[in-house]
Inverse folding.
């Protein structure tokens, strides 16, 4: 599921010059200031290293954000929030996000960056008025070592499936192609007379060989076909919706404005609005742990959602690639064991958030399956009843 995969296939959206899979942009809003960062995935054919994942083509992560000086500047001036009613806030979100959606792809990037302040202000105003409760409801994150049994307590079915590549979609596709072409070749050989039957059988049988050859040399060429075939299974479509809804909800609860999403064939992704960019990925500015932790949770939220609902995790290769690039920019540097612990913590933290807000998550999944707009998805999140113990 490439994808998210977070994770789910590529298309040109906010940045039309590259084929993007998904961009994750985190804009952390707190009373003492603001912090922003962004994760973008593009195909590069490389694989995760220290996290132990392999298999499907992975994605490159781009992380950008404001520097420490900008953080200090914003920290010195606490923002003033004007309360907004639910009607006013959702109307503003409808207008701003709708105008971005209606623009040509080449213009959406600048429009999204310009709209970040307005969207965040609307959500913060609604929160100040008590119209929303789950927006930015996790202002601080603290990581710790997590043991496998703690993941099980959060509902993860098989903790060993995390960071373990899954080739279930590829295997099912290959088996279906081989079985169907073999059966068709047999029918043709029996029905057509003489040499025509023999020629037809060899020709159809060659399809399986061609698919196997392409799959072993350039598997990316079969990605769309594999994704299309997998979507025949309703549980796979549910898997995609849950994966993307988890990115959406966890990002929202960590104070990250959502720009849009897609569950479409080969283009499943969740887009987050962006604030200040152009610094940390291409420069040498490191990412602080306080910035890295929410990004890690957003990156691994889809993995957590799949692991809570299914025995295997099919959409994690690109997400792990996202996380690896984030960890590579983190200061102080983390060793391999620390990175594995951080990965486990991010899955656990995301799973605990999804479990605590389970009803909001299920409402969001259904809204996204129905093609709801982002403001409609936010209404579904906020209107969902509280889960017991929330």
């Amino acid at each position: 599921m490439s994808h998210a995969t977070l994770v789910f296939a590529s298309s040109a959206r906010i940045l039309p010059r590259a084929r993007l899979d998904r961009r994750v942009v985190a804009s952390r809003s707190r009373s003492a200031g603001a912090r922003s960062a962004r994760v973008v995935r593009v195909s590069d054919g490389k694989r995760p290293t220290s996290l132990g994942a392999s298999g499907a083509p992975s994605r490159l992560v781009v992380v950008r954000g404001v520097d420490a000086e900008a953080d200090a500047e914003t920290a010195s001036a606490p923002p003033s929030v004007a309360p907004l009613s639910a009607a006013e806030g959702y109307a503003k979100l409808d207008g701003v996000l709708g105008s971005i959606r209606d623009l040509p792809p080449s213009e959406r990037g600048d429009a999204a960056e310009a709209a970040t302040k307005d969207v965040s202000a609307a959500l913060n105003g609604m929160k100040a008025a008590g119209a929303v409760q789950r927006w930015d409801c996790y202002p601080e994150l603290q990581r710790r070592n997590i043991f496998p049994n703690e993941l099980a307590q959060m509902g993860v079915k098989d903790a060993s499936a995390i960071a373990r590549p899954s080739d279930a979609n590829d295997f099912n596709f290959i088996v279906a192609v081989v079985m169907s072409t073999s059966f068709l070749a047999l029918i043709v050989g029996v029905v057509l007379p003489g040499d025509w039957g023999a020629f037809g059988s060899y020709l159809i049988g060659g399809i399986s060989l061609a698919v196997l050859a392409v799959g072993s040399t350039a598997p990316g060429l079969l990605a769309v076909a594999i994704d299309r075939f997998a979507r025949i299974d309703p549980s796979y479509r549910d898997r995609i919706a849950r994966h993307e809804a988890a990115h959406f909800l966890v990002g929202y609860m960590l104070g990250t404005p959502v720009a849009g999403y897609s569950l479409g064939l080969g283009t499943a992704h969740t887009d987050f609005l962006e604030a200040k960019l152009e610094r940390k990925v291409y420069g040498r500015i490191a990412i602080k742990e306080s910035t890295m932790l929410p990004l890690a949770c957003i990156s691994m939220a889809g993995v957590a959602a799949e692991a809570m609902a299914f025995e295997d995790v099919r959409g994690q290769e690109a997400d792990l690639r996202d996380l690896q690039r984030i960890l590579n920019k983190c200061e102080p540097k983390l060793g391999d064991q620390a990175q594995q612990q951080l990965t486990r913590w991010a899955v656990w933290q995301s799973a605990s958030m999804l479990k605590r807000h389970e009803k909001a998550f299920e409402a969001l999944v259904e809204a996204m399956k129905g093609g709801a707009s982002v403001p409609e998805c936010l209404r579904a999140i906020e209107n969902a009843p509280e889960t017991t113990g929330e």
Summary: The longest strand covers residues 20-30. The two ends are 31 Å apart (CA to CA). Residues 1-78, 275-283 have pLDDT under 50 and may be disordered.
